Structures are given as structure tokens and as C-alpha cells.
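tool=predict chain=A
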Amino acid sequence: MELIKPDINVDFVGRRRLAFIASIALILVGLVSLIAHGGPEYGVDFAGGTLVQLRFDENTDAAQLKQLLVPEPLPSAVIQQFGDEANEFLIRAQVTDSGLQGLRSAILSRLEASYGAGKVDLRRIEMVGPQVGKELREKGLLAILYAMIGILAYITWRFEFRFAVGAIVALMHDVLLTLGAFSLFGKEIDLPIIAAFLAIIGYSLNDTIIVYDRIRENMARHHKDDFSRVVNRSINETLSRTLLTSGTTLLVVLALFVFGGGVIHNFAFALLVGVVVGTYSSIFVASPILIAWQNRAGTSKKTVAHEA
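tool=predict ok
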């Protein structure tokens, strides 16, 4: 199945400078947002504390819950609606030194005294110590770093080092843009989001490898052509496959984002952003990096020859 005619010739390479400017601008916006917010907004997994999910038989509001639970038994708690209806809430509090059973009993006793016995469902309560949260955060970052190193080694072995550099730059671009989107929209980063980042890296890499394979084939087939024409030809030849794969993946992720519920909302949001920027980076970042590398190498050779 082909969505695009095989003889299409869109000048992607000619727009690479504009794409670089757009990418740098978006990354800077994300970095400014991160600085303004004092870094990423970590969830309970990474920051430590207690997460409580409550569901009521009738609708209520966060202000009433705050009056009942803050400062005791949950000091400095942040309460937000969970889902579309006003009967389910998430509560985050910096409580890490109480037993879960004692905290569960204290929360239920206060709420049932106001809403009635059996009218409150404490669906989950999770507690993570600050030291554990720090270790999880470090291990999550190391997982992403090790993935990048492994990808650099693999692509260098399968292709060339310049291909590996292009792929790594594209993957860093994808992660930074997704991280920036999380900061701009005020979404938390926890363990499932680290898993989403790794999934984004894998998806974007797969897209990039397809283009790289075609570039390598066309380098042998059209070795007399200018390298930028070879790259542009390769992107166009794989465009139908790229749009078909990305489009179907995007539909699935969009369905998860809209209908999946609050539990996987942030995870689906990360994948939604990642699929879009991953497809974009395969075309406008990874491949043009090869052209920049080739042009720089050609300039260096000319300089050496001229000096000789």
C-alpha cells in the first residue's frame, strides 16, 4: 500500500535550515519553561511522598476535600480532579514517615464522617521515601543514557559513525522536545513516563534506520550524484512508508490519549508527542545531519589540498 506516489520529489533537504531553526526555537522554549518551573515536575515515584486516589459515590470538589484532609492527616497536599467527572480525585502529599495502614484509616475516618460510611472508595495509596525516589530518578536517567550509548555503538557498527551521530542528535532532539512539552503543560514525570521516553527512542530510531538503509543503497546506486540529492531522494522514496506507519501509530496513541482514562493519560501524551517529533526528526534532523557532516568533511579536504 502506497499513500504517496513513488516518483514524488519534495525538497526536504532544501528546507533543512528552516527546520533546524524551528527545532532550536522549540527546544529553547522547553528549556526556558523548565528553568522557570525549577526543573521537571516529578511525580511521587521520583520526588517521594504519598499518592492517594479517591472515588466518591457523589460529586464533590477539591476545596471541600482540602478542608477535611489538610493539614491533618495530609499536610501540604495537592488535590486535583482525576478523570472527567467530579467524583474522583488524586491527592499528592509529602508524607513518607507514616504507616500506610494508619494513614488509610485516618483518611477514611475523616471522609466518611462527612460523606457517610461506604460512600468513599480509597482506590490506591502509594508511598515512596525521598531516598528511594532519588535512586529511581537516577536509574531512570541512566536507562536513557545507556540506551543512547548502545544505539551509538549499534549504528556505528551497522553503518558509519556519522550515521550514528545523526541518529543520536535526532533522539536527543525528540527527548528534549517531549520533556519541554511536559514542562509547558505542567505534567508530571514518573516511572511510566521514563518507559514512554524509551519507547519514543525506539520508535524514532526505527524510522531513522529505514531512511538510513535507503540512503546507503542509493549511495551505491547513484554514487555520481551530489550527496544532498541522494539523501533527498531516499527520504522521498521512504515517505509513503513513514507516513503510513506514523499515521496508524498516531491513531492508536490518540485513542489511548482520549479514551484511555487518567491512569495512562500522561503516558499516552508522551507517546503522542514522541511519535510526531520522532517522524519529523527522521526527515528533518537525522538525515540533514549527514549532509552537514559530508559538507564539513568536503570543506576540510579542500582546505588540506589547497594548503598542500
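The CA atoms of residues 182 and 188 lie 7 Å apart. The two ends are 54 Å apart (CA to CA).
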